[in-house]
Amino acid sequence: MVIDPITGNKYSTESRVSKSAWLTDEEDPVIDKLNQRLSDVTGLDMATAESLQVANYGIGGQYEPHFDSKLVDDPDLAHKGGRIATILIYMSDVKLGGSTVFPDIGADLKPQKGSAVVWYNILRNGLEDDRTLHAACPVFVGSKWVANKWVRARGQEFRRRCSLSPTE
Ligand SMILES: O=C(O)CCC(=O)C(=O)O
Ligand SMILES: [Fe+2]
Question: Whose Cα sits closest to atom 7 in ligand 1?
């Protein structure tokens, strides 16, 4: 929902304003190299991960608060499991705006070309981690390019130990 600053009227807007494309593992050898590097730095298996999603936000581009793990009508859920982790790679700097924010933990990540952020969406006990609510703030000046890799739970059983604790 957006509020017009002059009239005060509310109107709805797209929850995500960006353009995106999926790059499959077969697309180019550089994707293979990237997958290997992501596996090396996270210790996670990329074989069951989703294809790389590249997104571009122009001025005003944004993504409202959401959980990456909340998948609806996902045909892969049964055999690949949920989105256990997100790897978000910044492919550009942004002159003004475009931060990734986690409101519940007070984190504000400013895009920096060549950097990446990794987080687990699902706790070791299998429950979704509510602290992972996040959003992409509007781009005010410049253009924001990111690549997303969503790692699935299946395949990580011996890489990330599970837990019986109700809180972790
Ligand atoms: O672009 C960002 O900063 C966040 C993107 C995101 O949360 C998503 O694509 O799921
Ligand atoms: Fe997200």
Answer: 135
